[in-house]
Design brief:
With about 200 residues, this protein is of the alpha/beta class. Helices cover about 40% and strands about 20% of the residues.
């Protein structure tokens, strides 16, 4: 297949300059331990993998950038589709406590799916000297996909830690990852490989 031929030319993690990478955490929000089953059980392993990546990135001096929903009640069109969620100023619009967001990390609020759309994310990444994004988060087929699309359109190289992403609203997890790999030249790897790259 054509996609298989194209993917033969994909880069390897060893090709990357860690000094020009950032970890982009997309909508890993709220405390998953407070959620009802079965969503809690689905989210916890993903959040734990995200926490491992945040710790490894900080230890390696790689910037950790959170793009968080910060919706405005009564204004944001997304709320018409999905109901109230990620409202600005609420705990559900803050990074999951397991990720230990703090001083030295960067937070970019967003009101649409993509972390790039009418936010300061591109300017921040340019100022940090970043050309490669290690992307994780939720939902794989909504906010992660749209952010990864814009990262590709803005000429960033993209790595996605597949087991640090999750879809629970739309579509299939494996198909979503394959789509980003095929259409946006993303390198999809497990968390353990991404951690090894950051720690290496």
């Amino acid at each position: 297949m054509l996609g298989d031929e194209l993917n033969k030319n994909a880069f390897e993690l060893a090709d990357l300059d860690k000094g020009r990478c950032a970890l982009l955490v997309i909508d890993v929000l709220g405390d998953p331990t407070a959620l009802p089953s079965p969503l809690r059980e689905a989210m916890l392993p993903v959040v734990e993998n995200a926490a491992r990546l945040c710790d490894a990135a900080r230890g390696a001096g790689v910037p950790v950038v959170f793009t968080n929903d910060a919706h405005i009640l009564g204004l944001d069109r997304e709320l018409e589709l999905w109901g109230e969620h990620g409202l600005a100023g609420t705990p559900q619009a803050q990074p999951s406590p397991q990720l230990k967001c703090g001083e030295g990390d960067y937070v970019v609020d967003k009101r649409r799916y993509s972390g790039f759309f009418q936010t300061g994310l591109r300017l921040l990444l340019d100022e940090l000297g970043v050309d490669t994004l290690l992307c994780i988060g939720m939902d794989t087929n909504i906010c992660v996909r749209h952010t990864v699309a814009d990262a590709y359109f803005n000429n960033f190289r993209i790595v996605v830690a597949g087991d640090a992403t999750l879809t629970f609203l739309v579509g299939d997890q494996d198909e979503g990852l394959a789509y980003m790999e095929t259409c946006y030249a993303a390198k999809v790897v497990p968390t353990r490989e991404a951690v090894a790259f950051l720690e290496g």
